[in-house]
UniProtKB/TrEMBL annotation:
It comes from Bicyclus anynana. Residues 22-400 form the Catalase core domain. This is Vegetative catalase-like. SUPFAM superfamilies: Heme-dependent catalase-like (SSF56634). Keywords: Heme, Iron, Metal-binding, Oxidoreductase, Peroxidase. It comes from the Eukaryota. Belongs to the catalase family. The lineage of its organism: Eukaryota, Metazoa, Ecdysozoa, Arthropoda, Hexapoda.
Amino acid sequence: MDAHLSLSTLMMMVTKPIGILTTSSGKLVDIRETVALNSDAFSNQHHIDLMTHIDAERIPERLVHAKGGGAFGYFEVTHDVSKYTKAEVFNGVGKKTKVFVRTSSLLQNLGGNDAARDVRGFSVKFYTKEGILDLLCLSTPAFFYRDPIDFTNFFHTLKRNPKTNLFDFSTRWDFLAKKPETLHGMLLLLSDYGIPNGYRKMDAFAVHTFEINNKHGDKYFVKFNLRTEQGVEVLTSDEAAVVGQDLDYFNRDLYNAIENKNYPSWKLEMDVMTLESIKHIDYNPFEVTRLWKKGTYITVPIGRLVLNKNPDNFFATVELSAFNPGNLVPGIPGPMDNLFKVRRSSYRDTHTHRLGVNHNKIKINQPLYWKEYNRDGTPPVKENMMDAPNYYPNSFNGPVPYVDPARPKERFTVLESNAVDLEPAAYFYNHYLCDDGQRQRLVNNIIQALLPVSPEMRRRVLRLLILTDPQLGMKVETGLEFALETPLPPPPKAIKILRNNYKDSNEICTIVKNDHNYN
């Protein structure tokens, strides 16, 4: 069913007015006030209501993940994981918890193209009995940088040039050459994995390594992964050029699937390390720009996520939703790396800027239960805690804290290095990519992204690629020389020429079930 058709059908089902039209203050609107011609428009409160509201009805656009969609659904526990975590939401086989999921593209503006080569977001808000749990995931299992101070500079290079207001490959490659640890994430983005065939047919990864604990205080270290039950599908560059003619391809696909009751679903699992085993591995498992090595962890299934309801109002849900990685629950203390620590603060700050300090009191973000000492500020304030004291401790009727006896007593400290490590990027090229066709398409995409930049910038990038993997660097260098000497027709024909007869396929290789990560 077409999305427009389904919406029209829904609207036609409502055949009678829902009530008498009023102004925002509740005054009934006379039919003569619905016309402003030949009248004193400034004494018409209905007219003033309309004009002043439309002047202010847009809120700040998100800096990243601006364009997206969303849906409601549920999470069902399918396996007993009480050995690892006491979190109520993940315990009790058969238990269902309401969720809201926001899907998004990282770099696109509100009117951007869903099929652009981009990292996708998949954020899950669990409405648990112990508070909101936000699990913020990406379509790529490794992140671009690990030092939180790089956040502003990195995303400035990916957004529009301040002079031309155009996306600029030169700034991206310049930053990458200065910060080689970003290469792994860039290779992921430029590979077949860079354009999934819609939100339904992609996996999602929480990227960070989370500390969790059981009711005895025993701690474990995990990576949360969501595996699509629709099967992973990707788009090559020329396929994306075709489907990208519909700028809302991803959002339309998700909306229509749910309207047609073809409910998309994902399996939630976690890769697990013990406190003891994590002391004896030869790499940093908290490093967000790399993945865990095969044989150093086990994979444990947790449950199943199903999306089965589209929002009734996009703005009130998708646009007003606010996800914060710091929204955690007992049994999931969370990641300990410095990047995560900064994200906890910066996400709260951006929501306050975009939605106001009471963003968690907006319906879509509101927990099932809350009692606090914060008061006032930008609405909504709900009942503003009525007559309860606004300070703690007090001798009256204010809320009191509790004692969590299962909270781990030992502190685990992570020391991070700023040394450059190109091994994860080399491993991705040689082992994560499944065949020469995938490798050649990665090479072609790198070439296309390097063509607009200066010769000096190309030399810097080629030097980095050769240091990462000599074969990768030489292929890019040879392809660049060919592309610069041979005028190419416009895409997608240019991409087909560069493929050098490698088979084109939208299928992606299947990773062994218990070894989803690439090592």
